[in-house]
Amino acid sequence: MKNFTKISFATGVALAALSVAVPAQAAVLFDNGTFKLEDVNVGGQPVNLNSISADQKTVIGDYNGGTVTFTSTTDLAFNQGAATIYAAAKKGVLTDLSINIGAPGYNVAGFAFAGDGIFNLVVNGTTTISNITIPSGNTAFKLSGAGIQTLAFTFDPGIDTEKQFRLQGLSTSAVPEPTTWAMLIAGLGVVGASMRRRKTAVSFA
Question: Which of 43, 46, 74, 126 gives the lowest tally of CB atoms within 10 Å of its CB?
Answer without folding.
Answer: 126
